Amino acid sequence: MARLMKEWTIDALGAENLKITERRVPEPGPGEVLVRTTAVSLNFRDKLVLENGMGMPLSFPFVPGSDMAGVVEAVGRGVTRFQPGDRVISVFDPTWIDGQKPGTARHPTSFALGGLNPGVASQYVAFPEDWFVAAPESLDDGEASTLPCAGVTAWFALVEKGHPKAGDRVVVQGTGGVSLFGLQIAKAHGAEVIVTSASQEKLERALALGADHGINRVREDWAERVLEITGDHGADHILEMAGGANLGKSLQAVAVQGRISVIGVFEGAEISAPVTPVLLKSPVIQGIGVAHRRALQDFVVAIDRTAIKPVIDARYSFEQFREALAHLDRGPFGKVVVEF
Fold first, then answer.
1. Which of 87, 173, 242, 312 is the most buried (most CB within 10 A)?
2. pTM here?
3. Residues in domain Enoyl reductase (ER) (predicted)?
């Protein structure tokens, strides 16, 4: 008798259309692995995809979610990287293995899971083996599920592109998943970390996590305060999470020839900033579209060696997927995870 599994799907755009559906557990084809999902980590992107598709031609019924942890249950013919019983996590964009990102200037692409590729809010997935990497041994499945997007985005920005050194001044905007990973990664490299937030309570929690300074961006000019803290040196690296006109504040705060990693779009998809500090400071303004698989593998090794622990604000059950998505609107401190 065929085994059945449950998954969350939509038949039309809109989170209100989410429902649990059933279908047969897939069989792994040649080169594929069948993975039993144990945890899914949610990103703000997941809400945007459900609400408006983010301009992608989604195939319905559509399964949301890009970040998962699970256990290999079966392997197809020709699989060499995994065997049954292995713990794995997904790769955000499985077409990007290393080096230059696929796509052209006219058609830049991201074949991410839960978008142009299938999502992971399913009890089982059968994907090519190249779509997974081994999970870190030091994390539980819920923690491991936070690495494929939020964790490796911070790693890619700070380590792969930024090459931090001890004593660097790093500004982390906000206290979401990417930001708190950035805090921990920067501290692991000996940096002085400044966190900005609109919540004093979250700033206190960030300081307890290891941040050196906290700035309440509602109560004071955060860019001016960064300059005061650093004796006018400015920030060597800024994780720009807001987008919009906030990029101008980041340019005010960045050091001469510092780096701004543009990651978030919370203040809008259009960014704006004055040109004068760009010309006078010559900063690197780097867009970060998550990371390639090799960087994720490097990050897994670093996780096990540095004992970095992802910050999870709440864990929900499979049946509480809608509630978990709603939690994102409340501005979680760290990550929101759905466990199966």
1. 173
2. 0.95
3. 14-338
Q: Give yes or no for a contact between 129 and 81, defined as CB atoms under 8 angstroms apart.
A: yes
pLDDT digits (tens, 9 = 90+) for 50-105: 999 998 999 999 999 999 999 999 999 999 999 999 999 999 999 999 999 999 99
Quick: pLDDT tens for 264-288: 877 777 888 899 999 999 999 999 9
Q: Which two tokens stand for residue 319?
A: 């049946």
CATH class given for the domain over 151-287:
alpha beta
CATH number (3.90.180.10, 1.10.510.10, 3.30.450.150, 3.40.50.10300) of 4-146+310-339 reads 3.90.180.10
Say how far apart CA 286 and CA 255 lie, in whole Å: 15
Task: Provide the CA 194 distance to its chain's centre, in angstroms.
Answer: 20
With tokens 């809400």, the residue in question is 47
